[in-house]
Write the structure tokens for this entry.
Amino acid sequence: MTVVSTGAEISAILLERYPELFFLLHYASLEEVAVAPPSDRTALLSVKLEELSTLYIHGLGDGSYYSALQEWLQMSSDRRVIFLEDQLPSLQQFFNNPLAPLVFSHPQVIVRYLSDREQIDLFVQQLVTEFPCERVEVLSQSATPGEWFHQLRLELLRKSTVSHALVTESLMYYKLLENILPNIQAWHGSFLASGLSGRFKNIPAVICGAGPSLHAHLPFLKEWEDKALILAGGSTITALSNHGFTPHLGIAFDPNREEFDRLKNASAYEMPLIYGTH
């Protein structure tokens, strides 16, 4: 058994904020500690931080990510950085970093340790339940993160979206009822979309988004109008219909005022629209 000395300052911080890590690092057998390679910050430069509320970062690295994100954190108390580490030796090595006390004590910085890579589902579910947020991104400090990281990132993005939606509906339940009651009254003129299952087998599908390239691709859509199923949602329906093109199928699922404002300016009156009763 190897007893790890983390220093009085970092030990006090761990005892207060991360007692499970304190116990683990003091009473677990650890491998030889290697010097952490310099963090690759290419991924950080590629994201629009102003659009994010939560940033997951795989690996503690050399602390440069924390330094680069301090100003971003200071701009809003709602922002947070969550470091995900799955190597105990890397945790041990980071305690020698002069930034360690700042990282582990910062109220907007969270460190989580994944002891078993086979338990990604449970680990991710615990994270998104504890930190429900829709505007998230997941980065790696490695220039070549590997397949496991991509699986972790996909799980975090998917489950963050679902968790945020559930929390939002729980908080806005009274708005939910305001939507459900009038939508039920429209059932007599609607049909269950589940009946469309399997009806478009072997037919290509084109899913349109309201990005800047949409207008340039109108000739392509018109060429494929009789060859593929063309779907659009929200503001895309408005953009296409106002340019004289009606999608084959529209989707409106977001139960909020913004979705209504986007749709009310559309002119696709003959288009079947899939909606959620909520």
About this structure: Residues 218 and 241 are 11 Å apart (CA to CA).
